[in-house]
Amino acid sequence: MAPETVDDLEKALFRAFPKQDAESWDNVGLAVGDRMAPLGKVALNLDMSVEAVIAAHVSGCNVLVTHHPPFIADAPLEFGPVAQTFAPAPGRVIYEAASRGVNLINMHTNADRAIATREKFAQMLEINCVGNCESVLDKTRELLDTGFGALLECGDAGPIELGALASKCKRVFGGSPRVWGDAKRRIQHIAYLNGSWRDADLYEKCMRAGIECVIVGETGYHLCLDAQPYLSIIELGHDLSELPIVDVLYDALVHAELDEAKIVRLHCSDANWWPAE
Q: Going from the N-terminus, what domains does the chain have, and what CATH number goes with each?
């Protein structure tokens, strides 16, 4: 049955992206709003920004569903103050949402771990998905279970040169990826890690697992430098690496029997910044 209230919508999304899959410090689900409010039109966006709240209201939506939350009060200190707030002034987002009657729901690290998410990345790159990357980084997790990232293998098509893989990433995700490594290196095993990854031992674990290339949202300069020449790295940009998750959220809403005419995809996160010419 199609969701009729904000609470119904949150429950439907948690069926697609279980709350228990989220990190313990994450704040997923309804962040601001009235659970019992009748469900109107639903806006979708990557980021929960003031701009997105206003765009949702102007579009006649009373719910904004995003990947990123407005704030994370309990984020680990190593993530830094930006990750703890997820906005220069998260209070502005909350104020705008409350004053405009826009309910805010996010599916963050629970959506990151979804099988549908890693399959989406693999589909876009047209490379076989053989599991999640978290199983490589954390041996207690199962390869085919839910988990961060997509573990990709070129399979019968054979390896792809790093330069060709980077060009494919540019076509598929846009922007201007930063590439570390020999353009002629042949790549067979790939780890796709959306978002921000700055773990000190991340690339060491990838190398030990036989991964030749990591496609990452954003990472650290010295981590990339230290990984050379063993591990090739393609850095897409945090936002570009995660925009496909908006499509995954859209599919979940359709699966929940929400009328597609009531879903509005915003484009507030499609061009957050631009490169100087």
A: 6-110+242-265 (3.40.1390.30), 115-236 (3.40.1390.30)
